[in-house]
Amino acid sequence: MARMKFLCDAERCIACNGCVTACKQENEVPWGVNRRRVVTLNEGVPGEKSISVACMHCSDAPCMAVCPVDCFYHTEEGLVLHDKDLCIGCGYCFYACPFGAPQFPQAGAFGMRGKMDKCTFCAGGPEADNSPEEFAKYGSNRLAQGKLPACAEMCSTKALLGGDGDVIADIFRDRAMKRGKGAEVWGWASAYGKPDHPEQKAPQGAKS
Amino acid sequence: MSAKRNSAIAAALLAVVTLTVGCSEKEQVIVYEQGKYQGKPDTKPWENAPADSLHTTSTWTKGDKTSWEHALNSRTQKQNEYTRVE
Predict the structure, then answer these.
(1) Which residue among B68, B76, B81 sits closest to A163, beta carbon to beta carbon?
(2) Are A71 and A83 in contact (CB under 8 A)?
(3) B84: closest CA of chain A, how far (Å)
(4) Which of A54, A88, B55, B65 has most Cβ atoms within 10 angstroms of its Cβ?
């Protein structure tokens, strides 16, 4: 196995926020904490693009580099996880992260920050797998159940892919090669049959 | 008079040296050292038996990483609709 990765296809994402909802429900994420969110660029302008963003589980994770208590670790599958028992909620990781992944629950009066919470790729944390303690601190451990992250598996348009980097890269490559832009667009042959005159070329534009 | 003058010059020199040293800048760039994880060890996902999981369709042998990876990779293919249609 190469390593676990997320891949969001901006051509497909329709900003339905299904991934956000799936994540919230699966991990029982508290109010004010968003492990995953959908960002829309050029909103309202024709050609706007949306993308689902969460922790990308970086190879050389900046959060890990700046953490003063060294609570982050890399798993064998390439995931960046952390130990909440060590986290002091300093917020350095939030400033270091280019994706805005680390989230902090408000833990009391005067805007005090609680321990950092972020996407775990549905892989839990350093507690006994699928134990109530692990669920309370880190959420669901789907990888230990032979499942993939809930956000990716629930994505209605399959814009968000999650899994082994090599496998999802192959899926995406296959998709990009097949989807096309004209009459060869995916699904048309099944839905509408083959073109009556496949040899017929599209009309060429010309100056009048 | 000369002794007084000499001591005044020495004091002035000392003041200049002290001020110069005091105002000079020390190298403040530290050498970055990568820290080591200080938390609890985590278990591997393939160390669980499929029977321990709720509603899973994946099957693998407990403790066998390769079979777990194979189960996950075949599940990943369910995200590829091109293998399901056409």
Answers:
(1) B76
(2) yes
(3) 12
(4) A54
Q: Which residue in the block uniquely carries the two structure tokens 């009066």? A: A109
In this prediction, residues A172-185 reach a mean pLDDT of: 75
Q: Could you report the per-residue pLDDT of B40-69, keeping only the tens digit for each?
A: 999 999 998 887 777 777 889 999 999 999
Q: What is the pLDDT of residues A50-98, one digit of tens each?
A: 999 999 999 999 999 999 999 999 999 999 999 999 999 999 999 999 9
Chain B residues close to A158, C-beta within 8 Å: 79-81
β-strand partners of B44: none
Cβ contact A8:A159 at 8 Å: yes
Which of B58, B73, B85 shows the shortest C-beta gap to A167?
B73
pTM of the model as a whole: 0.80
Query: How close A150 gets to chain B, by Cα (Å)?
Result: 12
* Shortest distance, CA B64 to any CA of chain A (angstroms): 12
For residue B79, what are the contacts with CB-CB under 8 A and spacing of at least 6? A148, A152, A153, A155, A158, A161, A162, A163, A168, A171
Least CA distance to A60: which residue of chain B?
B34
> Could you tell me where the beta strands, DSSP code E, fall in A42-153?
49-53, 72-74, 80-82
The half-sphere exposure of A96 on its side-chain side, counting CA atoms within 13 A, is 14
DSSP A57-87: --TT-HHHHH-TT--EEE-TTS-EEE-TTT-
* Predicted-complex ipTM score: 0.82
Residues of chain A above pLDDT 90, percent: 71
User: Residue A161 and residue B79: Cβ atoms within 8 Å?
Assistant: yes
Task: Provide the pLDDT for residue A185.
Answer: 62
**Cα–Cα separations (whole angstroms), residue A145 to A149, A167, B54:** 11, 19, 7
